């Protein structure tokens, strides 16, 4: 039997998702109409012999997370539970802390994945690849190809081209190491805990020494990438399975729009019922929708509209996420933007952002997780309206971030509106 563990992080992570992460924990932000985390969970639930999915993070359990877990359990008919770390223990520390729960029932192997990745999740292929590589290794890493410049933002893997063994692993190197990058999706046997345990013991000695000499409390963090993969590389313990399918990180709100596009495309095969259909007498929709609308509006491509959204006549929306309860009044235009919960865009208003899509001419390009500011100014990016923002009629809001509950009275460009 198998298990799956998803690392969901905690409140101080997800800062590039502000102001949207003020309202929901980042893993529950909707991507292609469902919480980001649901895509990972659905992929895990489809693997035969999957017995349990465990979420590990340092969020305080709250109603939203509990509701999400219980509805996902019911829908997918698989046990899902949340284990809370007492502090951020790192990508290896959390699983080590909860190793007894992970190993209970004796899983033959377990998947581990970051919650903030969007992927076709080739989990069954990884499982087959793992079985083909005998019993003596302890893990398979999912890898994909990136271009040379962008590879520096990821964990980089050097492989043996014949055997796919991981020969070197360097996390976010400062100079080029390899164009194969770590996707943050792994398959491990229980042997991985022996290796994390060795690092844990060593760190423990150092922590005690440090406390005795300097009186300083050191955190118990273990990073899977720097502390484990780097050491295990070259010991025939790790292998890399390379995927040709889509994969992207979801670090910023802009990357959520890009990830939505990737998932909406996948819905044509995987979940056609989630896509809006175009029938005679209904508006033209290229994307997905939760509600029924009347004629005379053009929505899409790549649009997801939350429940309870009101859309007036003559409205144009594309490359955007409109969250539940929002009101788009007649003839307004929303492009490359996220409209927050219960926000209103007035008549003939224009809310517009700059897409941060990967270079379409480079097959290996990934989305850039730009910093918020460059050269002293706000980096042109998608426009984000926090929740309950009011945009009056006939104004233009471009490349701006509007914090929740703002009532704007004029046009704005390239600003964070506090
Ligand atoms: N539970 C828990 N989760 C954590 C912790 N720290 C990070 N995470 C979760 O682990 C994932 C990755 O965390 P980051 O620390 O933000 O790393 P990264 O910059 O995304 O890089 C990682 O992912 C890349 C692929 O997206 C990899 O290329 C890279 O090697 C690395 O694994 C996220 O889902 C985050 O929420 C922790 O202390 N506890």
Describe, in plain words, how this protein is organized in 3D.
Keywords: GTP-binding, Nucleotide-binding, Nucleotidyltransferase, Transferase. Residues 298-417 form the Mannose-1-phosphate guanyltransferase C-terminal domain. InterPro entries: GMPPB_C (IPR056729), Mannose-1P_guanyltransferase (IPR050486), NTP_transferase_dom (IPR005835), Nucleotide-diphossugar_trans (IPR029044). The chain has 418 residues and is an alpha/beta fold. It has 2 domains: 2-249, Spore Coat Polysaccharide Biosynthesis Protein SpsA, Chain A (Alpha-Beta Complex); 275-417, 3 Solenoid (UDP N-Acetylglucosamine Acyltransferase, domain 1), CATH 2.160.10. The strands form 7 sheets. Strands 1, 4, 5, 6, 8, 9, 10, 11 and 12 form a 9-stranded mixed β-sheet that branches. A hairpin with a 6-residue loop joins β9 and β10. α3 crosses α7 (192-214) and α3 packs across α8. The longest helix has 23 residues, at 192-214. The termini are far apart. The model has no long low-confidence stretch (mean pLDDT 91). The chain binds guanosine-5'-diphosphate-alpha-D-mannose. Guanosine-5'-diphosphate-alpha-D-mannose (GDD) binds next to β1, β4, α3 and β11.
């Amino acid at each position: 039997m198998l298990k799956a563990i998803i690392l969901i992080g905690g409140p101080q992570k997800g800062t590039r998702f502000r102001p949207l992460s003020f309202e929901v924990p980042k893993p529950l932000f909707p991507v292609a109409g469902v919480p980001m985390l649901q895509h990972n969970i659905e992929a895990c639930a489809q693997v035969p012999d999957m017995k349990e999915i465990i979420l590990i993070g340092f969020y305080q359990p709250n109603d939203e997370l509990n509701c999400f877990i219980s509805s996902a359990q019911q829908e997918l008919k698989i046990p899902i539970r949340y284990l809370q770390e007492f502090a951020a223990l790192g990508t290896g520390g959390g699983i080590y802390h909860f190793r007894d729960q992970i190993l209970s029932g004796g899983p033959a192997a377990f998947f581990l994945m970051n919650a903030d990745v969007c992927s076709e999740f080739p989990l069954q292929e990884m499982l087959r690849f793992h079985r083909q590589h005998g019993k003596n290794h302890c893990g398979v890493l999912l890898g994909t190809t990136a271009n040379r410049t962008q590879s520096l933002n990821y964990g980089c893997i050097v492989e043996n081209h014949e055997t796919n063994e991981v020969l070197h692993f360097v996390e976010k190197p400062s100079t080029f190491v390899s164009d194969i990058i770590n996707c943050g999706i792994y398959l491990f046997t229980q042997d991985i805990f022996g290796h994390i345990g060795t690092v844990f013991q060593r760190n423990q000695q150092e922590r005690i020494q440090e406390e005795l000499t300097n009186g300083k409390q050191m955190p118990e963090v273990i990073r899977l990438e720097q502390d484990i993969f780097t050491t295990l590389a070259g010991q025939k313990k790790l292998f890399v399975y390379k995927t040709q399918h889509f994969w992207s990180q979801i670090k910023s709100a802009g990357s959520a729009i890009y990830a939505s596009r990737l998932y909406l495309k996948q819905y044509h095969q995987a979940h056609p019922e989630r896509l809006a259909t175009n029938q005679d007498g209904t508006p033209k929709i290229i994307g997905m929708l939760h509600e029924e609308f009347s004629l005379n509006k053009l929505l899409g491509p790549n649009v997801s509209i939350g429940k309870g959204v009101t859309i007036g006549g003559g409205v144009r929306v594309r490359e955007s996420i409109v969250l539940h309860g929002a009101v788009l009044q007649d003839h307004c235009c929303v492009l490359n933007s996220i409209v927050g919960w219960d926000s209103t865009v007035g008549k003939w208003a224009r809310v517009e952002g700059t897409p941060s899509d990967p270079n379409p001419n480079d097959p290996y390009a990934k989305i850039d997780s730009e910093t918020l500011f460059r050269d002293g100014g706000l980096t042109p990016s998608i426009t984000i309206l926090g929740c309950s923002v009011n945009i009056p009629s006939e104004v233009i809001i471009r490349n701006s971030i509007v914090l929740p509950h703002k009532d704007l009275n004029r046009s704005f460009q390239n600003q964070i509106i506090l």
